[in-house]
Amino acid sequence: MRILVVNVNTTQSITDAIGKQAAGAASPGTEIVPLTPAFGAESVEGNYESYLAAIAVMETVRAHPEPFDAVIQAGYGEHGREGLQELLDVPVVDITEAAASTAQFLGRRYSVVTTLDRTVPLIEERLEVAGLSARCASVRASGLAVLELERDEQAAVDAITAQAARAVEEDRAEVICLGCGGMAGLAERVVERTGVPVVDGIAAAVTIAESLVRLGLSTSKVRTYARPRPKQIVNWPPKAV
């Protein structure tokens, strides 16, 4: 089984960390192929960057030369999953939905701890679209930018665990979801601080993708995610300026 794990930003070190986390969660015989988009922002922290990332991820997957069995979109709260589901005949799993759906097996209510406050509405909207918001106790911001997660790991751990603890104590969350692909590998540290289950979206997405492939299931093409209709697309890809 081969699973593409596509970073939504262009920072290679984040792709490497995502790939490592995904490989650690994969079953024997599953090949993880981490991909970095050829264009886009170095980190995705707003609507413009998120829509740009959606295009970049779709084009990166479309251009991949080798066959694959599933795709994971490794951006929390980002746009584009629906477009991938139209384009592909294999399962597409988004880490936002993977983490939240997994959390609902583990407790009555879950909270998401993410990066900057400006990303909170994007995550809330994606959970609403996916039908996963009813049991979400809160989406909390750690105040750290995506790239700061790498620069000072201890500061990142402190900020994330502090918000996770507040989610449990103040928002009555029973499960925590790590709300950024760049937080891969931090789950154990948050468990130590909060004492509740912590779901890493990358690991959850790998497990779900593997299960869908083994069950022989993929996206329905009857209506919502039918393949795009054949038509002329003008001036794409855009010429360099």
UniProtKB/TrEMBL annotation:
InterPro entries given in the database record: Asp/Glu/hydantoin_racemase, Hydantoin_racemase-like, Iso_Racemase_Enz_sf
Species this protein is from: Streptomyces thinghirensis
Source organism phylogeny: Bacteria, Bacillati, Actinomycetota, Actinomycetes, Kitasatosporales
Classification via Gene3D superfamilies: 3.40.50.12500
A Pfam family the protein falls into: Asp_Glu_race
PANTHER family named in the record: PROTEIN DCG1
Protein family per UniProt: Belongs to the HyuE racemase family.
Protein name: Aspartate/glutamate racemase family protein
